[in-house]
Amino acid sequence: MSVLQEIGSNVRNMKQLENSVLARRTTQIKEELRQGVRKSYKEVIDVSWGDPHKAGVKPLSFVRQVLAACLYPQLMDGDKLLVDVRQRAQRLLKACTGGSVGSYSATAGIPEIVQRVSEFIMRRDGGVPSHPENIYICPGSQWALTNILTVLVNPKASPRTGVLTPVPCHSTTVLSLTALGAVVVPYYLREESGWALEVEELQRALDSAKGVCNPLALYVINPGNPAGYVQSRKSVQEVIRFAAEKRLFLLADEVYQECVYGEKTEFVSYKRALAEMGRPLSDRVELASFHTASKSLMGECGLRGGYVELVNLDPTVMKHINSLFSTNACAPVLGQIALDVMMNPPQPGDPSYHLYVKETQHIRTSVAENVKRVDEVINSLPGFSCQQVEGGAFAFPRLFLPPKATKRAEEAGMQPDTFYCLRLLEEAGVLLSPGTDYGQKEGTYHIRFCIMTSLEIMEELLRRLSIFHKRFMKEFS
């Protein structure tokens, strides 16, 4: 008997991402280039995922030096490393079981690092209390989100559990909900208003779920992925009131909180807004907030270090969450160390401070310039419209395709934006993601690409895209 016949129905229902087709073709193209096949480009620019280091952003020296010293303590002999690097590595190794990063830690993470995560949250939120016992360090924020969803979603419930989810939305979250047997209840962000999250739309989505599922949670992404918006304090408060009124568990994906670019734009965490709203809301609304070392300016995607902070959960529920998180033993210790450095970077007077500030400021300046250039170039091209990117790591411009192009895509058995992305890959060597993987209003098409790149890569990307797009639009006009 084939194992395929035994696969669970929820896994069967998981939709294969359109980007997987593009990824396979990218691998083939790279091999063709290696073998000397002549193309109009010498290498593929891959900005389809939010991986800054892959896109030319350099790792931070202090982070890598601390990691290196923890992995190979002999590096701390002599004066090759600055004193604050050695002190940080020694402190972290002392906190590790057996003094080694190769040992397991406690389920929730190394206690000293969990404590410093708590202190970071309190500083971020202006002194709002944060309790270490409510924090779990995990192998990336998505892993933590899936675990919390596992607690919330009852696969045997009738009607099934529903989760209000933004459109557009990070594709991995939608796949996780499908795998768990939950019903995705879409609410649409208003593109023409800068991808605004409106309570009226949340109510429409909730009404649409009647008779279909039992909505228990509301998932929000702030700053947005892929849409690049940043919610105002007023917007966050309105969403909290809505969740309280409808008795919805709030899932706040806040992994891009350090990546805010608008001059008058400010990140306000859901936890801080909830605390500032006071009782009874601050004591009643259940909230899970997620952050990670992958999506900060640090950009250490491969180290898999993130955390979730839980607010206002019943102690009995917390016991079950602890049991569930224990099934993975602990998060990778190197990822925990990366988190520690992210929460506690070098301070004024530390030997590494000047270089750290120089490197992080370079990243901020480069991304801000990328945002400006994307706005200028994309919005100058016929058939494109891109809302201002206020935060996050992606641009998500709308693509107005000629009818001939959509017909050609249909004949090829593809979504129109996938067809566009495949042509862009083949002819210009640029790998982007089609908007269909993230959800979009019917009849609209988008592309997503990472803006956390080096200046050189972004300029080359925009140059290739401009040339291709004009040729494409002329071909199908």
Could you list some keywords that capture this structure?
globular, 477 residues, three-stranded antiparallel sheet, alpha/beta
First and last CA, distance: 52 Å
Give the CA-based shape.
globular
What structural class is derived from the secondary structure elements?
alpha/beta
Query: Major β-sheet, in short?
Result: 7 strands, mixed
Low-confidence stretches: none
Give the rounded overall mean pLDDT: 93
Q: In words, what does this structure look like?
A:
It is a single chain. The chain has 477 residues and is an alpha/beta fold. A seven-stranded mixed beta sheet has the order 2-8-7-6-5-3-4, sandwiched between helices. Helix 7 links the parallel strand 3 and strand 4. It is globular, with a radius of gyration of 23 Å. The N and C termini lie far apart (52 Å). The model has no long low-confidence stretch (mean pLDDT 93).
Short description:
The protein has 477 residues and is of the alpha/beta class. The protein is built from 17 helices and 14 strands.
List the helices and strands and how they pair.
Blueprint lengths: L8 H4 L6 H16 L10 E2 L14 H11 L11 H13 L15 H14 L10 E4 L2 H12 L8 E7 L3 H10 L2 E6 L10 H10 L5 E8 L11 H14 L2 E5 L16 H8 L3 H4 L2 E6 L13 E6 L3 H12 L6 H11 L9 H26 L5 E2 L8 E2 L2 E2 L3 H9 L4 H13 L1 E2 L1 E2 L12 E4 L4 H22 L1
Parallel strand pairs: 1-12, 3-4, 3-5, 5-6, 6-7
Antiparallel strand pairs: 2-8, 7-8, 9-11, 10-14, 13-14
